[in-house]
Amino acid sequence: MIINNILNEKLTPVVLLVLSLQFSIFNSKAQDIHFTMYDAMPVTTNPASAGVFNGAFRGVLNYRNQWAGIGNAYNTYAVMVDGGILKNNWRNGYLGLGLGAYRDIAGENKLGTTKINLALSSVLYLNDKNSASVGLLGSWAQNSISSENMRWDSQFNGQTFDPMAPSLESFQFENTNYFDYSAGALWAYGESASTLSSFNNFTMQAGIAFYHVTRPSRQLEFGDLDRLYSRWAIHAESVIGLFNSKWALKPKLFTYFQGPARQITGGILGRYMIKEESKYTGIFKEMAISFGTYFRLGDAIAPSVEFETSGLAVGVSYDMNISDLSVATGGNGGPEIYLKYVFIPYINGKGTKSNARFN
Fold this sequence. Notes:
It is a single chain. By secondary structure, the protein is mainly beta. The chain has one domain (2-152, 173-358): Beta Barrel (Porin). The protein is built from three helices and 14 strands. A hairpin with a 7-residue loop joins strand 1 and strand 2. It is globular and about 80 Å long.
């Protein structure tokens, strides 16, 4: 029993370190950050989405905790603001501008990525119902790791772990700063309801984006070259209003390819309009609730609920693992929540739905 206790005490830190490094390497080598409710962070999904929405500006806050069942695996914090500019100067389009940042931190050793993004898009009206846009994204990023919580076998004195003992390891970690560039293209279609009470509006967006064009290096240890894989992302979202009904369907699809990693995320939500907005007085604001499920193929399913009122929206989802990792996590993938605000000018006779393409 004493020997088992000693072995457990000695091996546990090593096992934790190995697991931490494995998760870190997987995250570093395989894929970028991702959100289950990816469409809540459109500029992160595709830089051509900057400014492409019905409204003057929007802001989004997002938090995600992944694999909560195995400690501090991944925590992601993100913020984004964007809007259209020069809308009154150009007859057939305008520019979109977006600014965002995120912080991703993983494990006890706090392997982290901090990134600040600036997006610029050009939006062209093809006709009353169609538009196309292209966008560029420039980013400054920093990778970091803390060795404070690392434990080594040389720090075990035969009875217990001694954090003051030298590790006798000859590694050196340093923060890495780099610039990153990405691009994307987006098509948007929108058709207003045929009558004020038919509610059969239809919108759709589809886009493609290419991330890490120059494949920047983000090594943390001297001599260890870690170049980011480029990433292709394809996505499509739609809102389908059901004729003479307060219900609408919201199908979504997002897939990306990044080095050896592949991911397919889909979702279907039902949206119910609790209260209709007033088209002429502006007194009453639209209120709606959406609920459904997202899924990541072979990885997780995530029930989701979203609530909207007066330009404010909040969404919550919870990942439930269905992959082999569910043995370690107990099926608990973790929660995600976003808070979004869109400022939409009111137009008499149309309410806030003045731009059919982006409703």
